[in-house]
Specification:
The protein is about 20% helix and about 35% strand. With about 425 residues, it is α+β, with helices and mostly antiparallel strands. The chain has 2 domains: about 90 residues, Purple acid phosphatase-like, N-terminal (Immunoglobulin-like, Sandwich); about 270 residues, 4-Layer Sandwich (Purple Acid Phosphatase, chain A, domain 2). Helix 3 packs parallel to helix 4 and helix 7 packs parallel to helix 8. The structure holds fe (ii) ion (2 copies). One fe (ii) ion binds next to loops.
């Protein structure tokens, strides 16, 4: 205790030193984007699954300085450090954008292809001017092997301060998750690069090893005087998602897509625009779907769980399709509460068929629950920061929702009988 007091008093004593550090800090803050000097070192490295994660994987990163010859390098991982001898290099694609129309940053991406299924790889990204560390990821199996993934609702606010603890607990609870799935409103203002910086600081090294599936919420859309002006210019440069969504619609590129993962189909919808075209596309995707499990994700919930909210147009367009094609699980966010339905078919609770709809929330902003669909709900809640671990194993899907403090908050199982 005495030692601590001495340190605090000592810190107060050196006014001259404080002035020096203040001037130094101001100089550094003037030097480049987000208060830091331009750097050729890779930052914000993130893996995204491709349509076929058993043989390919996408990686994106950025530098705040222009670099020559950005590259991705990869080798089959081994315990021996000699794995580096077998690494191969490939040139990355670079896209330059200006943050707030002023500070240029350089987004680089590469898709590793022709990989072996069920194999642990080591990769790094960078250029002769600076490299990342070597990171590991595992390709998916070609067959329906068991796997788990993490599902997260809106982080959105106080991402660094209050969401980090959720991400850390989720990683400890499911260290071998095949991927994490975010259902939008990752940040509060999608145009604010510093909020995205917070997100990467909060998730730390996790997206360098665990691929991330993300879809846009309404907060990833640019708005002027309350009118939407489209998906933020920061979305596509910083992620590399499959471009297998509705054909010919640039608005939906990398924001509406599907991924095949070990016998399960994951469809992400962009609930913010072009809903009719996505409904048509979804019908086609689901009509040709031999996978055992089908999971759809979207930001806006079909059975709202908060306040006076409701999304009848979304419901009118999509829930009949889910019923017809036997979607198992619908993962949603937006309502900043928790709500998990029983199986629902034609808007009614059923034991024998129908989809389970879930809304959850990661961040500290929490709304008052709604009573609107209370007859459909199996579990509701609010004022609770949550994460979910979902395991698919053959004919069984086991769902668990955990509070950030580690207690089991909700769970259920689905089983296939045919
Ligand atoms: Fe939202
Ligand atoms: Fe939100």
């Amino acid at each position: 205790m005495n030692g601590l007091r001495t340190k605090i008093m000592g810190a107060r004593a050196g006014a001259g030193m404080v002035a020096f550090f203040l001037i130094f800090a101001i100089c550094v803050a003037c030097a480049g984007p987000a208060g830091t000097a331009p750097s050729s070192r890779p930052e914000r490295i993130i893996l995204n699954p491709t349509q076929n994660p058993s043989t390919s994987m996408a990686v994106t990163w950025r530098t705040t300085d222009a670099v020559k010859k950005p590259q991705a390098q990869i080798a089959v991982a081994s315990a021996s450090p000699d794995f580096i001898d077998d690494a191969v290099s490939a040139p990355a694609k670079t896209e330059t954008i200006k943050i707030d129309g002023v500070n240029p940053v350089y987004y680089h991406s590469f898709v590793f292809e022709s990989l072996k299924p069920s194999t642990l790889y080591a990769y790094r990204v960078g250029s002769p001017a600076g490299w990342s560390e070597w990171n590991h990821f595992r390709t998916a199996s070609e067959s329906a092997e068991p796997f788990s993934f993490v599902y997260l609702g809106d982080p959105q606010n106080e991402i660094e301060s209050m969401c980090s603890r959720v991400f850390r607990k989720a990683q400890m609870k499911a260290p071998d998750a095949a991927f994490w799935l975010f259902v939008g409103d990752i940040v509060n203002n999608g145009e604010n690069d510093d909020e995205w910086r917070e997100f990467y600081d909060a998730v730390g090294w996790i997206p360098r090893s665990i691929p991330m599936i993300l879809l846009p919420g309404n907060h990833e859309y640019k708005k002027t005087a309350g009118v939407s002006e489209g998906l933020t210019y920061l979305w596509r440069p910083q992620f590399t998602f499959p471009e297998n969504g509705p054909a010919g619609l640039n608005e939906l590129k990398e924001a509406s897509y599907f991924i095949d993962y070990q016998g399960a189909l994951f469809v992400t919808l962009n609930g913010n625009e072009r809903l009719e075209e996505q409904a048509k596309w979804l019908k086609k995707v689901l009509a040709d779907n031999p996978r055992k499990w089908t999971i759809v994700s979207i930001h806006q919930p079909f059975y709202s769980t908060a306040g006076n909210r409701d999304n009848p147009y979304h419901k009118m367009l999509f829930t009949d399709i889910f019923d017809k094609y036997g979607v198992d699980l619908v993962l949603q966010g937006h309502d900043h509460t928790y709500g998990r339905t029983h199986r629902v078919f034609k808007d009614k609770k059923r034991k024998d068929k129908g989809s389970v709809y879930v809304v959850t929330v990661t961040g500290p902003k929490q709304y008052k629950p709604s009573e609107l669909y209370k007859d459909l709900m199996a579990k509701t809640g609010t004022q609770t920061q949550l994460f979910q671990v979902i395991r698919i194993d053959g004919d069984k899907l086991a769902y668990e929702s955990y509070a950030v403090t580690g207690e089991l908050f909700d769970s259920f199982e689905l089983a296939k009988t045919n």
